[in-house]
Amino acid sequence: NGCMDKRLPGNLNLAIPGIDAQRLIAALPDLALSWGSACSSAESTSSHVLAAIGLDEAASHSSLRIGLGRMTTEEEVETAARRMCEEVTRLGAEFEALGANRARVAG
Does the active-site annotation cover 39? Predict the structure, then answer.
């Protein structure tokens, strides 16, 4: 999310469609992840900063910030990326199963 040229080093904000960022962060407590934008990290509502750059409510709720420190190693980044991918896959499967169960109950 945001401009790829004008940004702080070591800080990435991205949206993962269909994933609740707060659940992903809760599943990975040892990683430096935050929800929303830095300007709204203490708030429980959607970020006004993310809305200002054009994200809708769904994208805002699926957005998280990843922070890297000066001492972060390439191995740590690779490990974090692998763990995030595993959790996104797990949470996505839970979301799909919930939708299938709701369709079965409604049908």
Answer: yes
